């Protein structure tokens, strides 16, 4: 398939792989893709939750839904898992990486193993998946890779700098990957959500004011359709993070953020 053909693949014919399919943001995104009739291959580590998400997406109109249970921390399993997904879907148009952990910042400040676990799940595992997926799409000269990074990666803050550094690394990796593969017909979309109402943030102070997950999902679907490079969602996080990135360090280091 050529680059232009891939761009024109209608949502109803689209073959989409979702890694971390039980994530609140991923599930909301998949509900839209299912209603458009897409074919979906869903990967998650919790078999029960995964079966329930898959059943719901079938009811909502997905043309095809297959699943695999996998702990994505296990990078040795990635090549076989991804090959199986492509085989099951008989091709691949979009790979959507959604899994991630917030982690416990206070523990991570005291214990390297806690910090290493956050970095492994949020950065090393995606790097393993992205390396395989990028090479797959480059060979076919088409495809879209969409990845949930975070506004937290735009500047380290005392309240969550371990999580933030995992997302900063991920965003930088994606920027470099895009620079490599865009000319090969492959789109790389970096998604930076601001605080969004999902299981990940439900215990946070003020979470009732966080962004609605369905609105976030609609923006993600639209960005995939338009082959956007970078998405801040909701959009106001783009100017907010511009300001935060430009606060002079002598002031920033004294703020309680
Ligand atoms: N919500 C926000 O405010 C926000 C903001 C910015 C970025 N993000 C990013 O958006 C993505 C989705 O988050 P969410 O808000 O939808 O949170 P969520 O509902 O808590 O989803 C996180 C998902 O990651 C899965 N996961 C974690 N480690 C895994 C592993 N080793 N193997 C397989 N699956 C694993 C979890 O599976 P289990 O259910 O089995 O634990 C869960 O399905 C994450 O990358 C997050 O960092 C979220």
Structure characteristics:
257 residues; alpha/beta; Rossmann fold; seven-stranded parallel sheet; 49% helix; binds NADP nicotinamide-adenine-dinucleotide phosphate; NAD(P)-bd_dom_sf; Short-subunit dehydrogenase; oxidoreductase
- What fraction of the residues are assigned to beta strands by DSSP? 5-15%
User: Which cofactor or ligand species appear?
Assistant: NADP nicotinamide-adenine-dinucleotide phosphate
Any idea what the shape is? globular
Tell me the major beta sheet.
7 strands, parallel
| Average pLDDT | 95
**Radius of gyration, rounded?**
18 Å
State the helix count: 10
Q: Give me the CATH architecture, please.
A: 3-Layer(aba) Sandwich
Number of strands: 7
Quick one: CATH superfamily?
NAD(P)-binding Rossmann-like Domain
Order of strands across the main sheet: 3-2-1-4-5-6-7
CATH domain class name: Alpha Beta
Query: How far is it from the N-terminal to the C-terminal residue, by CA?
Result: 47 Å
H/E order of the elements? HEHEHEHEHHEHEHEHH
CATH topology: Rossmann fold
Q: How much helicity do the residues have?
A: 40-55%
Number of spatially distinct domains: 1
- Summing up helix and strand content along with how strands pair, one would put the structural category as alpha/beta
Uncertain runs are: 1-8
How are the elements arranged and paired?
Layout: H1 3-7, E1 15-19, H2 24-35, E2 39-44, H3 47-59, E3 64-69, H4 78-89, E4 94-97, H5 105-110, H6 112-140, E5 144-148, H7 161-181, E6 187-193, H8 213-225, E7 230-233, H9 237-246, H10 249-252
Bound molecules: NADP nicotinamide-adenine-dinucleotide phosphate (NAP).
Residues 20, 22-25, 44-46, 49, 71-73, 98-101, 121, 148, 150, 193, 195-196, 198-201 line the site of NADP nicotinamide-adenine-dinucleotide phosphate.
Protein name: Short-subunit dehydrogenase
Family: Belongs to the short-chain dehydrogenases/reductases (SDR) family.
Pfam family, one: adh_short
């Amino acid at each position: 398939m050529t680059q232009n053909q891939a761009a024109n693949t209608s949502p109803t014919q689209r073959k989409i792989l979702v890694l971390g399919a039980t994530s609140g943001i991923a599930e909301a995104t998949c509900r839209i893709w299912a209603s458009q009739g897409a074919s979906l291959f869903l990967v998650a580590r919790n078999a029960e939750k995964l079966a329930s998400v898959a059943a719901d997406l079938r009811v909502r109109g997905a043309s095809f839904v297959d699943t695999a249970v996998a702990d994505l921390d296990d990078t040795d399993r990635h090549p076989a898992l991804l090959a199986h997904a492509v085989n099951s879907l008989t091709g691949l148009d979009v790979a959507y990486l959604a899994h991630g952990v917030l982690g416990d910042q206070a523990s991570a400040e005291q214990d390297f193993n806690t910090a290493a676990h956050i970095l492994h799940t949020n950065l090393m595992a995606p790097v393993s998946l992205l390396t395989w997926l990028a090479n797959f799409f480059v060979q076919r000269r088409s495809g879209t890779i969409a990845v949930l990074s975070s506004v937290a990666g735009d500047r380290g803050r005392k309240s969550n700098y371990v999580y933030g550094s995992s997302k900063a690394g991920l965003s930088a990796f994606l920027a470099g990957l895009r620079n490599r593969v865009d000319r090969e017909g492959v789109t790389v979309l970096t998604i930076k959500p601001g605080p969004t109402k999902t299981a990940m943030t439900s215990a946070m102070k003020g979470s009732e004011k966080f962004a609605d997950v369905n609105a976030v999902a609609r923006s993600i679907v639209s960005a995939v359709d338009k082959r956007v490079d970078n998405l801040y969602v909701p959009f106001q996080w783009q100017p907010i993070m511009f300001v935060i990135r430009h606060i002079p360090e002598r002031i920033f280091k004294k703020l309680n953020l």
